[in-house]
Amino acid sequence: MFEAVNNFLQHVDDLVWGVPLIVAILLTGIYLTIRLKGIQITKLPKALKYMFENEESGHGEVTSFGALCTALSATIGTGNIVGVATAIVAGGPGALFWMEIAALFGMATKYSEGLLAIKYRTTDKHGHILGGPFYYIENGMGKKWTWLAKIFAFFGMGVGLFGIGTFTQVNGITSAVGNFFDPNAQNVIHLLGRDYTLAVVISGLILTVCVGLVVIGGLKRIAKVSEIIVPFMAVIYIAISLLLLILNANKIPAAIVEIVSSAFGMRAAAGGALGAIIVAMQKGIARGIFSNEAGLGSAPIAAAAAQTKEPARQGLVTMTGTFIDTIVVCTMTGLSIVITGAWDMGLEGVSVTTKAFQIGLPFPEQVASFVLMLCLVFFAFTTILGWNYYSEKCLEYLVGDKKTVLKGYRWLYILAVFIGPFMTVSAVWTIADIFNGLMALPNLVALVALSGVVVAETKKYFEKQKY
After folding, report:
1. End-to-end CA distance of the chain
2. Are 26 and 105 in contact (CB under 8 A)?
3. Cβ distance 178 to 200 under 8 Å?
4. Contact at 8 Å (CB) between 246 and 58?
5. Separation between Cα atoms, residue 107 and residue 91, nearest integer Å
6. What is the pLDDT of residue 105?
7. Residue 407 and residue 392: Cα distance in Å, rounded?
8. Measuring CA to CA, which residue among 230, 178, 234, 164 is closest to residue 373?
């Protein structure tokens, strides 16, 4: 039964994440990069500076940095640790190259999303700011495109409930805990026709309770918890990854050569080069988007609440999210995996990254495993919370401010967290990929349609900066 379900999901995934969607995402990023004259490169120093310089005046509910942290809480998660490993195992080291290429062009996409979020945000009768792709589709493209906004909101809700928000994060957490506390699966119980370790089952129950306590408390509690956890754990993970790379610096040049040669099918057997390139592109771009969410339209939901009066300024701050998430964090994870050869040891999921840390760090294996497990648990936990916020906003757009429906959805979200540990690793990532691709489509249409507005606002802002 499980095999039949996996085969069906894989077939759907191949259709959604086929060459057309990969080309559409890359071309959108390239198109916006050209129209914005490489803004992700030329204005990156200014964008990084703006991250820590909040505007003194400006209408909004949170600071620009606060909005960025909210977005990062949803993006820095299992995609950075498990997703990178999954991509490299499935597509070879070349998947990391295509992940970086997608992120580079994705920064222009993310800039445009942040700008449009501010440009077309609205305020409800209670004084709360509403924004995101559904509002820039409806207000920017016109009321006749409301159907497209609703499609985005529906798939966005699906991504939260069945993709990035629950299954993948929960599965990543429980797998990491299980691998650490019971790596040989000595204490197992039989559930749903399969064996699960007690560590997986218990950690899944604890996680469900913790998520429930925060989510039922509403958005303010989500933000408060995320703001404490994300910066602390991000610093720890980056520091540990940097240590691994510094200690193995002599192996980095060879790893880069392997990544580039794999990306262009140079290691494939005669006649198989094109197939190797397509697989590397497919896995790398899919996992890259899963991690940084450029083009998905999730970050603008958080960006819309920023205290700013300048759409272009918030666009710059928003695009730093992709830089931090993929260009920095995912690169560190990917290099660690390639340098140590952990991707080619018959492992899958979090076990790949764990093995890389065990091999590359000068600590006892248990210490390296514990640090990685801790980072993964907290990263994934905040991603679960962040995507509850996103998907709830999607639902709110569809049904309005109906408290009973929204509260019911929170309980459904908690239920999805509860069943997450019992999904197979391949099925979990395949479901996430499918919803990601479907969510991206309406947003890409809007970004291209409103690219003229993005260019005009950008030009106006930087002309003002000269005086």
Report:
1. 67
2. yes
3. yes
4. no
5. 23
6. 93
7. 9
8. 178
Nearest Cα neighbor of 421 from 184, 187, 199 is 199
pLDDT at 270: 44
CA distance 12 to 465: 48
**Burial of 116 by CB count in 10 Å (0-12 exposed, 13-18 middle, 19+ buried)?**
buried
Q: Please give the average pLDDT of every successive group of 10 residues along the chain, which has 467 residues.
A: 72 74 86 95 90 66 67 71 83 88 92 93 78 92 93 88 78 79 76 74 86 74 71 84 92 91 67 70 76 82 83 90 87 92 83 88 87 84 84 88 85 86 70 78 93 94 79
Q: Are 346 and 176 in contact (CB under 8 A)?
A: no
Give the per-residue pLDDT at 61: 62
At 323, phi and psi to the nearest 5? -60, -50
Tokens of 7: 């085969």
Phi, psi of 188 (to 5 degrees): -125, 155
What integer pLDDT is reported at residue 219 of this predicted model? 59
Among 22, 30, 32, CA closest to 112: 32
> In terms of Cα–Cα distance, which of 347, 295, 365, 39 is closest to 175?
347
Predicted local distance difference test score (pLDDT) of residue 60: 61
CA 47 – CA 259 distance, rounded (Å):
29
